[in-house]
User: What shape does this take?
Amino acid sequence: MKAMILSAGFGTRLVPYTDSLPKALICHKNLPMINYQIEMLKKYGVREIIVNAHHHYQKIVDYFAKNNFGIDVNVIVENEILGTGGGILNASNYLENEKFFISVNVDIETNMNLPAMIQYHKLFQPLATLAVQKRPTKRYLEFDGEMNLVGRETDKSDKKNLYAFNGIHIISNEIFKKDLKVKYEDILNIYFDLIRNGNSFLRGFDARDSSFKDLGKLENLII
Assistant: This one.
């Protein structure tokens, strides 16, 4: 099983730390935050990780050249930042032969049951499964009664069908067969376009009472 850690962002919410470091290497509880994602993924059987890099990319390249995590870690440097969607599509050479792969935002801390999410994805076999949760957020995702993704919250949304996204997806390699261009784009916008075109369905996996912390916020870091 392979995974991708999305690490190319500028980390603007973490200034001044990101003035000199990529967000992935900012410490949380005395370790670079990317270490937590790597150890979580290793724990659940991931054997190869792809990391994308743009902001202060050379520091990420150097970090993995000097540190061995016991599994293959491949760094993809984005000369022009591609966003979460373009970044995933740009990693097709590493991921297209996997039936599905895990994508994790670098700036999250959670104790979510990832094996249960993997089994859920295998059961329903959507284009992608998104980890979601009933918690406050400024940008809710809307699902139908079967937990199929509908889109973002609108004025007409039923509150019981609104969830916050927890930054973890399990994505089928079918996404690389959709003739999508590698360009700057949010992965959620790619999902919404595919839904509107009617040729894909995506599911939400309710993480329920799992802990979740957005490490992209200064107040959540323990430095």
